[in-house]
Description:
This protein has helices at residues 49-64, 104-126, 143-149, 177-180, 182-185, 187-196, 202-207, 218-233, 237-269, 273-284, and strands at 25-30, 33-38, 70-75, 132-136, 139-141, 153-157, 161-163, 200-201, 213-215. By secondary structure, it is an alpha/beta fold.
Amino acid sequence: MAHDDPTPPAAEHGGDAQPFRSEVLSIEVDGHVATVWLDRPEKRNALGPAFWEDLPRAMECVTGDPDVRVVVIAARGPHFSVGLDLTAMGGLSGQVGPGGGSSVAARAAATRAEVLRLQASVTSVATCPKPVIAAVHGYCIGGGVDLIAACDIRLASADAIFSVRETKVAIVADLGSLQRLPGIIGRGHMAELAYTGKDIDATRAAEIGLVNHVVADEAALADAASALASEIAANSPLAVQGTKAVLSAADHRRVAEGLEYVAVWNAAFLASNDLTEAMGAFLEKRPATFSGT
């Protein structure tokens, strides 16, 4: 996958650790607050191969910094994320397995392994021992929703648009939304969003509990995320992290079992005629016509 800047930015923080470098993410630390930036604005922060490789490294970096007490995930450019980079991640269809595997079983095993790898990338956010705040503006679609579902708190600007979009592209969402969001917004709202793939605005997102607060614009969002992170960081880090551990304890096994289940499901059913149609429609910029096969 090509990138415009061949020299990735380094994380802007001190200490003896090696600087964090990525083509699609960057880290800034201000006092006790680290901001992990989605930093591919020219592609509307579409989530391609580099993102899935680098997100766990970014979370490891901020987790390992003893000065960091709170993490904010935010995005540069006009949108938080338009979701999976369908062009770059086309191999997820499972139609071609790595190493030349040609049997149905080999392709299914390769698909399951890849889904589990992407799931683990998102889970690195959920398992960060420090509180993680998502600051969302513009589009937050598909994989973007998976990402913010793994955060502890979500804030949005008034222009934010959310969508659990996968059924519109013939995919069962498999990176965490179906496992984490029912505990955040309730099963009924989750079912409506996932079955329809509809867009909802920030006001609706706040009404159903997807976001904690909505602010006027991107500048106000940055201020609100900074203020909330600073308020949390002023408390005892041991007590705050202990509180997160206790809140999360009951969820981890349920989520892990659900992620494994959907990985196996998509290993069996992802490579459908409907997915081929969805990819073709996406590339040709036309509505898809699904046959259910």
